[in-house]
């Protein structure tokens, strides 16, 4: 993960080194060499994904930063978006997402929860199924609104199971349980929120140089104080990704180009289902970055 970037681009290597230094652990070694079980542990996976995104941006920033209308990131990717907008330095953001991962893990241990992806059903129907399945001491909510017909639900295991069955009865094509350590983006994460807010208040956070579209509200954020509050809210609020991408498309205007940075091309696929006409490129590997740089 990211090894090819570090070998080909000094700017990427510098990002990985700076994050290793601030975390006081060889995160880049785990990224490059594994073992996979160590890399996928929440406290490593979150800063690793951020490091990968920040490394890519460090290489391509000179080609794109003068023309950026807005940035957005899905869940922990919102921190990466603030890195691209110069509101957070990559090492500072890595510290925050590692702390976020620790807090989410702890909240999940204190009140075990789960998540499931619902495919082929409109968001309103999923939300209605969650409301129907929730009881006083057990709840399910729509947590990630990824596309108009793909929603991830989150909450107490029994309520998520009931909501999944209700979604099937309403016509969902599939309900897929997810391997997660907690009910993320749901009220079950509330115990982590105050602790994360404290970490955000202590972080060196600047006003972004271009607006960042917030997961929790789909608004374009332009000041550090508002960014801190919404990153805290994000723990217990839904990721409103459909609205985020619609707003980003409006801010970019006709003919806007979307550039996905980081591992994989999941967001590009989601975008095409939200804004079908979108022009999007994914940059995760050294070859993809090289091709982009040569064409820019």
Can you give a write-up of this model?
The chain has 296 residues and is an alpha/beta fold. 54% of the residues lie in helices and 14% in strands. The strands form three sheets. Strands 3-4-2-5 form a four-stranded antiparallel beta sheet.
**Biggest beta sheet summary:** 4 strands, antiparallel
Ends apart, CA distance between termini: 25 Å
Mean pLDDT: 95
Pattern of helices and strands: HHHHHEHHEHEEHEHEEHHEHEH
* Strand-residue proportion: 5-15%
The helix content, as a percent range, equals 40-55%
Sheet with the most strands: spatial strand order: 3-4-2-5
Number of strands: 9
Q: Structural class of the helix and strand makeup? A: alpha/beta
Q: Tally the helices.
A: 14
Please compute the radius of gyration using only Cα atoms: 19 Å
Based on CA inertia axes, which overall geometry fits? globular
Which terms summarize this structure?
single chain; 296 residues; alpha/beta; 4-stranded antiparallel β-sheet; 54% helix; globular
Write the layout of secondary structure elements.
Elements: H1 3-8, H2 10-23, H3 27-33, H4 36-39, H5 42-64, E1 71-72, H6 77-84, H7 90-110, E2 114-119, H8 123-133, E3 140-147, E4 150-155, H9 157-169, E5 174-178, H10 190-202, E6 212-213, E7 220-221, H11 224-233, H12 241-252, E8 257-261, H13 266-274, E9 279-283, H14 286-295
Parallel strand pairs: 1-6, 8-9
Antiparallel strand pairs: 2-4, 2-5, 3-4, 6-7
Helix pairs in contact: 2-5, 2-7, 5-6, 5-7, 5-14, 6-7, 7-10, 8-9, 10-11
